[in-house]
Amino acid sequence: MSFTVLLLLVTYQTRWVYPDIHAYFSQAGNLTGQQLATRSRDYLQESLEILLTEPLDAAARQRAHFQMELAYSLFDIGLYRNEYTCTRPSLSELDRLKARLQAGEAITPADLREGVLGPVRCLTEIEMHQLDRRSTVTAAFVEDTRRHQGQVLIGSLVIFILGLGFWWMHERQRRHAERATQESLEWMARALRDPLTGVGNRSALHEDVLACQGQPMGLILIDIDFFKQYNDSLGHPDGDWLLRRLALLIDETLSGQARLYRMGGDEFAALLDCDDDDVLVDHCERLVRRLRVAGFQHPSHPGATHVTFSVGAARFIADRAGFEAGYTAADQALYRVKANGRDGWIVAETKRMSDSSELDLENG
Ligand SMILES: Nc1nc2c(ncn2[C@@H]2O[C@H](COP(=O)(O)OP(=O)(O)OP(=O)(O)O)[C@@H](O)[C@H]2O)c(=O)[nH]1
C-alpha cells in the first residue's frame, strides 16, 4: 500500500510537475521574450549616437543605416507585431528613416524623433512588458513548486504513517501468534506431565516410545506395595509426599539413563534405550535396594517397617505392537512379584528374578 502511494506520488511529480519546470526554463531561455527587443534597442541607440555626434558624411550615414538594419531585423518579428500595436508604426518610421539615409537626404531632429525615438519607446515598452510577463511566470513557478513541495511532504508523511501503521499491525499479529504458540506449547507440555510429581504421564510415555520407532528399548514398571494402607494410616497428604519423594528417588537411581513417568495411582514407569537384559536387571536391583536404604517408614506394611516396591521389567522394540507386548510382559512380571510376596523384581524376557527372601537375605 505504502509503495502504491509512493508510486502515485512519483508519477504525479513526473507527469504534472516536470512540464511546469520545463515551461519555466524554456520561457526563461527564450530569445523572443525581451532579449530581441533589448538588442534591437541597443542597435537603434548606436545609430542615434552616430547621427547625433558624428559629421553626417557618407560613411557615417552608411554605419547608421547598418545599425538601423540590424535593429529592424530584430524588431520585425511576429510576436512583437501581433502583441504590441506600436510595432507596425515604429517599423514604418524606421523604414522611412532608412530610405532617407540611403537617399542622402538631410536628417532633421523631427526625423530622429519620429524614426528613432518612437521605435526606441516602443521597444522599451516591449522589454518592460516581457520582463513583467517573465516575473509573473517565475512567481507562478515558485508558487507551484511550493505547492508541489507541500504535496510531497504530506504524501511522505502519509506514507510514513501508513508504514508505521502496517508495522504496528504486523508486530501485534506476530506477538499474538507468538503468545498463542507459547500457550499451546505450555498446554501441550502440561498435558504430558503428571501435576503431582512433575514427571511425564502415560501419554508422554506413548509419545516417547513412538518417537524412538524401531529401537530396542527397556520398560521398568514400579508399583508401591500396600500404598492404600500407607494412605489409610498416614493420610493422603503424606501419600502425596511419598509419591513425590519416590519419583525423585527413582530418577536419581536411574541416574539420567531412563525417562520417568507416572502411570497413575502408585505406579511409575521408566523407559530407556536397552538391548541387553543385564542392564534391566542392574536397574531393577538397584531400585529395590535403594528404596530399602532410604527406609521411608510404613507403619501399616504387613511384612516390613519401611516402604517397598514391586518391579517388573521387559525389553521390546519401539513400535505400537512392540510396546504393547513389552508393557504386557512387564506388567505380568510385576504381577508375579506381587504374587510372590512383593518387595522384589522380575525381568520378563530373561525370566531372571530375585525373590524377596533372597533380597532380604542379601540385606541381612
Ligand atoms: N495419596 C495419594 N494416593 C493415591 C493417589 N492416586 C492413587 N492413590 C491411592 O493409591 C492406592 C492404590 O491402591 P492399590 O491399587 O490397592 O494398591 P496398593 O494398596 O499399593 O496394593 P498393592 O499394589 O497390591 O500392594 C489407592 O488407595 C488410591 O487411593 C494420589 O495421587 N495420591
From TrEMBL:
CDD domains: GGDEF (cd01949). One of its GO terms (molecular function) is diguanylate cyclase activity. Pfam families: GGDEF. It catalyses: 2 GTP = 3',3'-c-di-GMP + 2 diphosphate. Its EC number is 2.7.7.65. The chain crosses the membrane at residues 152-169. SUPFAM superfamilies: Nucleotide cyclase. Keywords: Membrane, Transmembrane, Transmembrane helix. One of its GO terms (cellular component) is plasma membrane. Residues 215-350 form the GGDEF domain. The keyword Membrane applies. SMART domains: GGDEF (SM00267). One of its GO terms (biological process) is cell adhesion involved in single-species biofilm formation. The keyword Iron does not apply. NCBIfam families: GGDEF. This is diguanylate cyclase. The lineage of its organism: Bacteria, Pseudomonadati, Pseudomonadota, Gammaproteobacteria, Oceanospirillales.
